[in-house]
């Protein structure tokens, strides 16, 4: 008996959680490869020039006359998105799906005479056009009276989560937004178990300080950047987990919902390319906030900007100047190849290991360092002054374990 106990103690010490031993789940690995998603806000706020509804709006205001979910999905795809997260209920408590647990929803709106289900329309458009689908259900609820009673509200939230998890097919991601919830205690363990029961492959998003046991973490800002040093493994409350960062940022500056006369807030193509470099290019996921207008359509100017963004990413990164020439960390280039970007990717199957590196290029007889960085992770985009070179080499200067490179590509953006 003593020996058994001693064995148990020893094995727990020896197998104790170690930062570098943490691996991603297969679902996380697949999700990280999606790289770009969109988050769609639509509801009574859209018709009232508001960002945060107080929960008192009359459902009759929700009356989109030309709603076309396929138009939203096509715009998202043109922008390079591979998944779409739909806000099923924002902080105002209004449900864009006909929940059995409240009347404060599309059921009481003029939209399709109360027979509409926006979440279903969007889910179906996503399936049709090959986008993965996710849902945002705001924990903070300014309409539902049960919100004042933690236990009663937990039951309400879990009931709605169950409706969403069982009606609309596979969910790639489920968003728990912490805004407005200061001081409220939620039964997260029950939420997570319920989601795992019906959708074992859905990844839960939440900020670290809001929910300890999530699968994806908030990057910590809504400006669209991750830190240059970006580890996927995070110690949250003593739980060491693989929890990659997602950076959500709206297409129109500071507006998640559509507002009249706010076209001037639409981010420029340069701004979006910079955001892409600082999110996807730092191993984080980029989620662009899109907002259909009061007709129920994505505004033309937003659609155009998404098309430009998708095309520019494709123009630069779709053309690998080292194609077929890279052998691991070294790529021989045609003589005098002009380049200003190198994209690195670590093989994350066995965890994230690179702590620092430099990128060298060979110019004539000599060589020079064009970039230095810390982590690589899912992807790292290095942008530098254009240079004409014959070869590129990655030198890993420090790593937790044997570094494994998945890919190294070379590009010229010309800016
Ligand atoms: C924030 C919310 O308060 C905003 O309204 C929006 O939903 C954004 C995505 O998250 O926390």
What is the CATH homology-level superfamily of the largest domain? Glycosidases
The tally of strands reads 16
Shape assignment: globular
Strand content: 25-35%
Radius of gyration: 23 Å
CATH class of the largest domain: Alpha Beta
Average pLDDT confidence is 95
Can you write the helix and strand succession as a string? HHEHEHEHEHEEEEEHEHEEEEEE
CATH architecture term of the largest domain: Alpha-Beta Barrel
- How many domains in all? 2
Keywords:
415 residues; alpha/beta; TIM Barrel; Jelly Rolls; eight-stranded parallel beta barrel; 8 helices; binds beta-L-fucopyranose
Topology:
Blueprint: H1 2-14, H2 26-32, E1 36-40, H3 69-78, E2 83-89, H4 118-129, E3 132-137, H5 150-167, E4 173-175, H6 188-198, E5 203-206, E6 216-218, E7 233-236, E8 239-242, E9 245-250, H7 269-278, E10 285-290, H8 300-317, E11 326-327, E12 330-346, E13 354-363, E14 366-373, E15 380-399, E16 405-411
Parallel strand pairs: 1-2, 1-10, 2-3, 3-4, 4-5, 5-6, 6-9, 9-10
Antiparallel strand pairs: 7-8, 11-12, 12-15, 12-16, 13-14, 13-15
Brief synopsis:
The protein contains 8 helices and 16 strands. With about 425 residues, it is of the alpha/beta class. It binds beta-L-fucopyranose (FUL).
Describe what this molecule looks like in 3D:
- With 415 residues, this protein is an alpha/beta fold.
- It folds into two domains: 2-317, Alpha-Beta Barrel (TIM Barrel), CATH 3.20.20; 326-411, Galactose-binding domain-like (Jelly Rolls, Sandwich), CATH 2.60.120.260.
- The protein has helices at 2-14, 26-32, 69-78, 118-129, 150-167, 188-198, 269-278, 300-317; strands at residues 36-40, 83-89, 132-137, 173-175, 203-206, 216-218, 233-236, 239-242, 245-250, 285-290, 326-327, 330-346, 354-363, 366-373, 380-399, 405-411.
- Strands 1-2-3-4-5-6-9-10 form an eight-stranded parallel beta barrel. Strands 11, 12, 13, 14, 15 and 16 form a six-stranded antiparallel beta sheet that branches. A two-stranded antiparallel sheet has the order 7-8.
- Helix 3 (69-78) runs parallel beside helix 8 (300-317) and helix 5 runs parallel beside helix 6 (188-198).
- It is globular.
- The structure holds beta-L-fucopyranose.
